[in-house]
Amino acid sequence: MSRRGKNEGSIFQRKDGRWVGQIQIGHHPDGRRKFVSYYGKTRREVARKLEDSIASFNHHTFIEPSRITFGEWVWCG
Question: In the chain, where are the structural domains located?
Answer without folding.
Answer: 10-64
